[in-house]
Design goal:
The chain is of the alpha+beta class. Helix content is 15%, strand content 60%. The protein has an 8-stranded antiparallel barrel. A hairpin with a 5-residue loop joins strand 5 and strand 6. The radius of gyration is 22 Å and the shape is elongated.
């Protein structure tokens, strides 16, 4: 009897739990909370791509991943620094861990999730233009603003189709500051304090294929 119960329990677990590996890609729209009389900031849209591994246990699921995600900042006008304009694009290797809750229906599974993440900047690209400074001379100083380490959380929802295709939408918040005022060149200190307090947030729309 004990052996029979063990077999039945193993069969139940295997029927309700499974794991898959997948690839994910999508767009990342990054917003900024900078509000200043001399700085006009706006959103910037880039992309993300990576690998996911998901495990489902009945109504719940865990989906860790490794994602290359480009986030950015667009400063449209900085009136006290010779009409300087700048686009910053930083690529992070992010480690999200998505915790899901959803219902298995006929051929599809709607779900909601929470997703803490940790990231490390591996690429940094800036396009800085000014009425007096050359772009290549400005970019080096502005690149020093970026903090390497990031962390935050995302909340969202999605749908699984036939255990193969996954479509999701999330809103994310970076909890720590993304820029370091102390690393900025002295000639740009006029807005360093403003930029260094910026905490990134935005929307990610993703599609994943699991195997």
């Amino acid at each position: 009897m004990k052996r029979l119960l063990t077999v039945l329990l193993a069969a139940t677990v295997s029927a309700s739990a499974f794991a898959q590996v997948g690839i994910v890609a999508g767009v990342t729209s990054t917003a900024t909370d900078i509000k200043s009389a001399v700085v006009q900031a706006s959103d910037i849209t880039q992309y993300h791509i990576g690998l996911m591994y998901r495990m489902r246990f009945g109504l719940f699921g865990i989906q860790p991943g490794l994602v290359y995600n480009i986030k950015g900042l667009r400063l449209n006008e900085i009136t006290n620094i010779n009409d300087l304009k700048a686009n910053f694009k930083t690529g992070f290797f992010e480690f999200p861990v998505q915790v899901q809750a959803g219902f298995n229906l006929a051929g599809f599974r709607p779900y909601v999730f929470a997703e803490p993440f940790l990231g490390y900047a591996v690429t940094n690209d800036s396009d800085v233009t000014s009425s007096v400074q050359e772009p290549e001379k400005s970019s080096g100083d502005w690149n020093k603003l970026r903090n390497r380490l990031e962390y935050g959380v995302g909340l969202g929802g999605g749908i699984d189709l036939f255990n193969t295709i996954q479509i999701s939408l999330r809103y994310f918040w970076n909890m720590g500051p993304l820029y370091d005022e102390n690393q900025l060149n002295a000639s740009l200190k006029g807005i360093a304090a403003t930029v260094s307090q910026e905490k990134c947030s935005g929307i990610m729309a993703s599609i994943a294929f699991f195997f």
